[in-house]
TrEMBL record, chains A, B:
Top-level EC class: hydrolase
Protein name: Dipeptidase PepE
An example Gene Ontology molecular-function term: dipeptidase activity
Source species of the chain: Nonlabens ponticola
Domain of life per record: Bacteria
InterPro entries reported in the protein's UniProt record: Class_I_gatase-like, Peptidase_S51
Similarity comment: family membership: Belongs to the peptidase S51 family.
Pfam families, A to Z: Peptidase_S51 (PF03575)
Length: 237, 237
């Protein structure tokens, strides 16, 4: 019985950190009677320390009487994941995040926790790791993880911060769509391009698109197509 | 006695493939008396086949009486690299390129060839591999190479297609500058952001910026700074 929010971004343009997600997050935490949230700060956006990153989340949830515990402060990380009622993995650099998850052997415990019903929130890099591998991240490979394999809590990959091609650009680097097309030369896993403000609401067998924007689905040897909020991605698996 | 052109891109906006580089390339090939160019097509931009990619280069050099040979057509790849007078590695996906170079054990032969004076042209992914590792590529990690280690023909890394932050953007994904700052959390290698149209002209001990645009240098724990055409990057090593 999965219970997840897989979000494209933590922050909307002009908004505060987690602002657009706070009310749905608090509601879901109350529903599973979680007064504590286990935070995984390993993606370190901009190189922020684990402590400082955890404090950012703590500040957001303090007014809602939710205690935030950084996974890095725990003696036994695997047990901490196993005992958590609710887990949040923040965004940042997916390579660094996945490197740490492999080093601490946390992928299997996370998968087990999610399939046992532990609430999970991911934003950006924290959403990338919900897919089958991290081969559709937008991040720079600043460190080398032992493997690109990720949690596999859903049967496809996420491309967070999905960005439509800018027709006025004179830049000759690849567009996001071209990059995902390159992924499909070597892989047959479907990819969901999640625009900022969108998230996938996973409840049991359902994987519903939420937010105001459409999402873009990329499958091998098919033209990409758009799906509207309310769409269930479960059949992609 | 190195003899290299390390270019940000193969193609300028509105230009044809290799157009802006053809005259300097032909001049350099004549200088080393190379009537043949060994082309490494492994980066496969957009998934183009090795044959088709090689044909694209062949078409450009046909009017100049330069024969283009695809490395993939050679029986013994290492010997082909060792015997070449001139080598060109084209752009595309750096992960796929580096995966192939490791699988065929071509990194050491390429390094040796370059330091023995074999002319080398790299564009985009073909330039990324001239640095110490591929950790500053912009590409999507669509496949997993055995290692991120690259040729090390220069003592720093390249970020090709360097793109200045767009102040009007409402997109919350990281800017290029933020990504390189993340690289410097975990690495102390200098990074040269090469804008499109720029290249590094390596001749012996000199590594000179050519083209019309400035380049941007990123060093750990320093503010990034701009250098003008004519600048010698050799001291960065």
């Amino acid at each position: 019985m999965r219970d997840m929010i897989i979000a494209s971004t933590s922050t909307l343009h002009g908004g505060k950190y987690l602002e657009y997600l706070t009310s749905v997050l608090v509601k879901r935490l109350k529903r599973v009677d979680a007064s504590q949230l286990l935070f995984i700060p390993f993606a370190r956006p901009g190189g922020i320390s684990h402590d400082d990153y955890t404090s950012r989340v703590r500040e957001v949830l303090l007014p809602h009487d939710i205690e935030v515990v950084g996974l890095h402060t725990q003696k036994d990380l695997i047990t901490a994941v196993q005992n958590a009622k609710a887990i949040f993995t923040g965004g940042g650099n997916t390579f660094q995040l996945v490197k740490m998850l492999h080093e601490y052997q946390l992928l299997a415990p996370l998968r087990q926790a999610i399939y046992s019903g532990t609430f999970y929130l991911g934003t950006s890099a924290g959403s990338n790791i919900c897919g089958l591998n991290m081969r559709t991240t937008n991040d720079m490979p600043v460190v080398q993880p032992a493997s690109f394999k990720t949690i596999g809590a859903i049967g496809y990959n996420i491309n967070p911060h999905y960005l439509d091609p800018d027709k006025n650009s004179k830049h000759m680097g690849e567009t996001r769509e071209q990059r995902i097309a390159e992924f499909h030369i070597y892989n047959n896993i479907p990819v969901v391009g999640l625009r900022e403000g969108s998230y996938i609401d996973v409840q049991g067998d359902q994987e519903i698109l939420r937010g105001e924007l459409d999402a873009r689905i990329f499958e091998q040897e098919k033209n990409p197509y758009e799906v509207a909020p309310g769409y269930d991605f479960a059949s992609l698996a």
